[in-house]
Amino acid sequence: MRLAAATLAMLAAAAACTSASTTEPAAPAGVIARDVYAFDDAGAAIPGLVVEMRYFGSENFVGRPIAGYEAPICLLTREAVKSLAAVQERLNSLGLGLKVYDCYRPKRAVDDFAAWARDPKDQGRKADYYPAIDKSKLFDLGYIAERSGHSRGSTLDVTMINLRSGAEVDMGSPYDLFDPISWPASTAISNAARANRMLLQDTMIKASFRPLKEEWWHFTLNDEPYPETYFDFVVR
Ligand SMILES: [Zn+2]
Predict the structure, then answer these.
(1) Which of 196, 192, 172 is nearest to 183 (CA)?
(2) Coil, helix or strand at residue 155
(3) Beta strands in 132-180 (DSSP E)
(4) What is the DSSP letter of 211?
(5) CA–CA dist 64, 222 (Å, integer)
(6) Considering its fold, how many domains does the chain have in total?
């Protein structure tokens, strides 16, 4: 069975590459898509990884669970999980650990964000997540987009915790705050918070992830296995 699954994964990857597909190729009947495409549950695979899937629950900028999240689990490609495990090991040696907020994100969740962004009435979480931004400008300013790298399965949103207390370290601004203060290089935060951002960034970069200049929490694996494929299987 293992061999069959591996073969299917290779065939699927080849199909995705040659067709430059932007959606998920059909999985064979009776097979869970995440198995076919070699996705792992990072929380089960990485010792001590704290998983707080914000879009599974209501503590997010929309204020309700997002489409496509049916379980609070962090799915990532096997390659991304392997690299993330190296980050966890390094941080553990410093008395720190990783907490993930989002991992693989189905395309239908991105569509849900886009539909929400087009509805000017629904601004219940504005004060916490986009206090200085006019909601009608979220697309133009790049905070909401029609596609997300998260749907390719090798991108995640992550912060650090203190291993002893379990508390999140100070990153200078909360997760998903739509504001220039969330840029990793922002100088509007304390030196300590800036040092924490740089430590996370340096450790992720050493493990072959690349940062995003607008969000301190967002990283993508450099050699991601499905660079052209935007998956839509649900998280369960
Ligand atoms: Zn992200």
Answers:
(1) 172
(2) strand
(3) 155-162
(4) E
(5) 32
(6) 1
Residue 2 lies in a domain: no
Cα(212) to centroid(ligand 1), Å: 9
Could you list the active site residues?
Answer: 215
* 89 located within any domain: yes
CA of 3 to the centre of ligand 1 (A): 33
Report how far ligand 1's centroid is from the alpha carbon of 209 (Å): 13
- Domain containing residue 53: 40-221
User: Does 34 reside within a domain?
Assistant: no
CA–centroid distance for 20 within its chain = 22
pLDDT, tens digit, for every residue of 181-218? Answer: 999 999 999 999 999 999 999 999 999 999 999 999 99
Q: Are 81 and 45 in contact (CB under 8 A)?
A: yes
CATH number of the domain encompassing residue 93: 3.30.1380.10
Query: What pTM was computed for the model?
Result: 0.88
Which distant-in-sequence residues (6+ apart) come within 8 Å of 150 by Cβ?
A: 102, 103, 104, 105, 110, 156, 157
